[in-house]
Specification:
The chain has helices spanning about 95-105, 110-115, 125-135, 140-155, 170-175, 180-190, and strands at about 5-25, 35-45, 50-55, 60-65, 70-85, 155, 175, 195-205, 215-225, 230-235, 240, 245-250, 260-265, 270-280, 285-290, 305. The chain has about 325 residues and is an alpha+beta fold. It has two domains: about 5-85 and about 255-305, Immunoglobulin-like, CATH 2.60.40.2250; about 95-255, Roll (C8orf32 fold). The strands form three sheets. Strands 1, 2, 3, 4, 5, 13, 14, 15 and 16 form a nine-stranded antiparallel β-sheet that branches. The longest helix is centred in the middle third of the chain and has 15 residues, at about 140-155.
């Protein structure tokens, strides 16, 4: 049962004072077996009140407003979590699950929503991948694993060539990206064959074992499998989500799980810096810091500007 100390700092710097910054945060732990939060502290510039509620996907969402003029906004989240590996009994999954899955999906609004695939410009690229993978003897769980394996073996993990607005069509063309991109491709593959699946945001915290994306914000997917429920699978590392994955939020895609987003008043451009530190029980600390590229706005006539969010690595 490892214990992780995670610090996640989101820092916006503005080139002139702004005001009335209204923000939504999804940086709170998702309620799930095997994940226990020992403590969680969130410190924000000017110490505003955080109003919380539970959204459609069962995420804890916080809202806050910084009304005073400011040239910097810092959201500092400090989380201590204890995790336990949840064993997956793969013998409970069989080819017969396809019929059960269809019945359960048709009778559950959330599953039905999460089974709807995205409209792509080139859907044939998804179908070509599925044609390569498909075997009529595979169960839904086996199909999910094969799709994850295909992404892991055929897509390159490269930072900096995609951003939060990159579409699945572009990722299929690049065959490269980061965890956020691979999660979106896997969602499209699974939904195309009728497996309800949801995007998951969080952290990946292995200690010096070389997993891609370790020590940073991370993304993977949950696939709904009859008799097993939601099964987390990480296409970036081709593994089931395990005791090293800390889950924060879920949704149809990244936009439902954005760690921080909001608006502010004032004709200002802004820069975004994201810092993540993971502390382990042996005293080791892993640090990751990224300056996120932002689209610059004309500042003369810009009363309200949308705050972009960081890409998950």
């Amino acid at each position: 049962m490892p214990v992780f100390k995670i610090q996640h700092i989101t820092k916006y710097k503005y080139d002139r004072p702004v005001r009335e910054s209204a923000n939504q945060i999804k940086i709170f732990s998702f309620n799930k077996p095997g994940q226990e939060i020992l403590s969680h502290e969130v410190v924000i510039t000017d110490e505003p009140s955080i109003n919380k509620f539970t959204d459609y996907w069962s995420n804890t969402v916080g809202f806050f407003t910084v009304s005073k003029p400011h040239e910097e906004l810092i959201i500092d989240s400090r989380l201590i979590a204890k995790t336990t590996l949840q064993q997956i009994d793969e013998t409970l999954s069989s080819k017969k699950d396809w019929e059960i899955l269809q019945q359960e999906t048709n009778s559950n609004m959330i599953l039905l929503d999460l089974a709807q695939k995205e409209n792509l410009k080139s859907p044939e690229k998804i179908q070509l991948i599925l044609d390569h993978i498909y075997n009529e003897a595979y169960s839904p769980l086996e199909t999910t694993k094969k799709c994850s394996q295909f992404i892991f073996e055929n897509f390159k993990y490269v930072k900096g060539i995609t951003n939060v607005e990159t579409k699945v069509d572009e990722i299929l063309e690049f065959r490269s990206g980061v965890c956020q991109d691979f999660a979106h491709v896997l969602l499209q593959l699974l939904r195309t064959v009728g497996i309800p699946s949801r995007y998951v945001s969080g952290y990946i915290c292995p200690n010096k074992n070389g997993m891609r994306g370790e020590g940073a914000t991370h993304a993977w997917i949950d696939a709904y499998i009859p008799n097993l429920g939601w099964i987390g699978i990480d296409p970036t590392n081709n593994c089931f989500a395990n005791e090293h994955h800390i889950q924060l939020a879920v949704g149809r895609d990244f936009s439902d799980c954005t760690p921080v987003k909001g608006t502010f008043k004032g004709p200002a451009n802004h820069d975004l810096m994201v810092y993540v530190s993971v502390g382990y029980e042996d005293g080791t600390t892993f640090e990751d810091e990224n300056e996120v590229l932002m689209n610059k706005e004309e500042t003369d006539q810009a009363p309200v500007i949308h705050i972009q969010s960081q890409q998950q690595q």
